Amino acid sequence: MSKAIVSSLYDSDVFRMACRQFDKAADAINLPEAIRDRTKYPRRCLAVSLPVRRTDGSVTVFEGYRVQHNLSTGPSKGGIRFHQSVTLGEVAALAMWMSWKTSLVGLPYGGAKGGVIVDPNQLSQAELEHLSRRYMQEMVSFLGPHTDVPAPDVGTNERIMGWMMDTYSNHVGHLSPAVVTGKPLSLGGSQGRREATGAGVAYLVKKYLEDLKIPINKATVVIQGFGNVGSETALALVGYGAKIIAISDYTGGIHNAKGIDVQKALTYISSQRVLKDFGGGEHITNEDLLELKCTVLAPAALERVITDKNAHKLKCRLLAEAANGPTTNAADKIIEARGDIELIPDVLCNSGGVIVSYFEWLQNLSSFYWGRDEVMEKLYGILDKAKASVDAQKKKFGFSRRLAALTLGIQRVADAKAARGLFP
To answer: If residue 34 lies in a helix (H) or strand (E), which one and from where to where?
Structure first.
C-alpha cells in the first residue's frame, strides 16, 4: 500500500489549490494510489541567495527559487518570474500546472518554474542585469538544454533571457542558445515567440466564439493585466475584429464602452511604464473591471483573482484564462453551477507560449530557423488538436472543460512514470 505524503515545504494557498485540482482529476480517472504522489509532487527544488551590488555601492541579498516538477517526459520547462510576492509554494504550483500543460498539448517536456522575490521596477538596468546573471550562475548545475529550459514570465523579458543565456554559455565554454527560450532574435530567439501566448489565447477565443455562434466582430473583451500576454491578446483580438472595452495593470483599469485604442495604450505604456493616467477611457479598479458586462473576460495577470467573492458577479459569456491559476477552486464551483459561462482553462488557453518556446528550442538544437508564418501555422495546428482532445474528453465523460484538460495532462504524465518504472 502506498503512503501519501503531505508537503510542508511548498505549503501555500496556491499550492493547495493546485493539489486540490490534481486530486479531483486523479479521482475522476481512478489514478492508482501507487502512482499518485509520484505524479503530484515536485521532483526537486533549489533555493538560492543572490547578492547584488547596488548602484549606490550597497549590497542587497535577494532570494530565488527553481522547482522542477516532472522530468519523466523530457527536460522540464517553465518561466522565471521576478515579482515581490513570489513564494516557493507559488513557484511549485506553477511548475505543476506547467507539467499538465506541456503534457496536454503533446510536448516532450516536464514542468518547471523559477522565481526571485524582487520588484524589478525598483532596480536600475545594471542591477537587473547583475541579478539575472547571478540567478543563472547559481542555477548552472541545475539547468541545461536537456535538463531544464527556462523562459520569460511575469517581470522578465527577452533581454533578461539573453543575459541568462550568455551567463550559462560563458560557464560551459561555448554558445548554448537552447538553454533558455524567449530570447532576442539576434541570440537565437524564434519568430513569433514574443506574441505567442497572447496570439494563442486570441486564437482559442475566436474558435470558442465560433462554437458559441457569436460573431467575433460583435464581441466585447475585458482584459485584466496588460503585460506581454494581455497586450498581445488584445492586439490579436483587435486584428480578428473584436472590441476591447477594458484593460488594466496593477495601477488600475481603463473602461471605454466604445472601445479602447490598444496601440495608443501600448505607446503610452512604452513611455510611462504603467496605465495610470492613460486618457483612453474611464478609470476603474481591477475588482470592478472583472465584473464588467462583456462577451469575453481574459484574466491575464496573476493567479487567484476570480474567487468565491466575485465569481457570482461575472457578466461574461466566455472566460479565457490567459494567466496561470486565475480562478480559485471555490470560484470554479460557482461558475460551473451557474452554467452560463464557457471556460477556456489555463492549461489550454495560455499554452501558446510554451508551444512556441518548444519551437525555439528545436530551432536552437538544429541551428535551422523558421519564418513567422511557419511558426504560427504550426502553433495553431497544435492548439486545434489540443482543443479537440479537451472537448472530446469533456463530452465523453461529462466533465467540465477544466477537468477534461487536467485529466488528459495528468494521465499522460502518470502513464510515462508508470512505463518507466520506479528506479530502486
So the answer is: helix 33-40
Q: How far is CA 381 from CA 42, 221, 367, in A?
A: 30, 24, 23
What CA–CA distance (Å, rounded) separates 24 from 1?
A: 21
**CATH for the 41-176 domain, from 3.30.428.10, 1.20.1600.10, 3.40.50.10860, 1.25.40.10:** 3.40.50.10860
Candidates 59, 52, 25, 46; CA nearest to 347 is 25
- Angle (CA) 81 84 85, round 5°: 85
User: Which residue ranges does the chain devote to CATH 3.40.50.10860?
Assistant: 41-176
Distance CA 114, CA 92 (A): 9
Give me the pLDDT at residue 373, please: 97
Q: How far apart are CA 223 and CA 286, in angstroms?
A: 10
Full strand arrangement of the beta sheet holding 110-117: 44-53, 59-68, 110-117, 76-83, 148-152
Examine the residue annotation and report whether 333 is marked as an active-site residue of this protein.
Answer: no
Q: Where does CATH 3.40.50.720 sit in the chain?
A: 196-344
Rounded CA gap, 89 and 91, in Å? 5
> 77, 113, 183, 394: which is the annotated catalytic residue?
113
Using CA atoms, how far residue 321 sits from 17, 233, 266, 267, 306, in Å, is: 16, 11, 21, 25, 10
Task: Please provide the average confidence, as pLDDT, over all residues in the chain.
Answer: 96
| CA torsion, ordered 379, 385, 388, 393, to nearest 10 deg | -120
pTM tops 0.90: yes
Residue 369 burial class via C-beta count within 10 angstroms: exposed 0-12, middle 13-18, buried 19 and up: middle
What is the CATH class of 196-344?
A: alpha beta
Which 8-state DSSP code applies to residue 189?
P
Residue 314: its pLDDT value, please?
98
Longest Cα–Cα distance of the chain, Å, equals 64
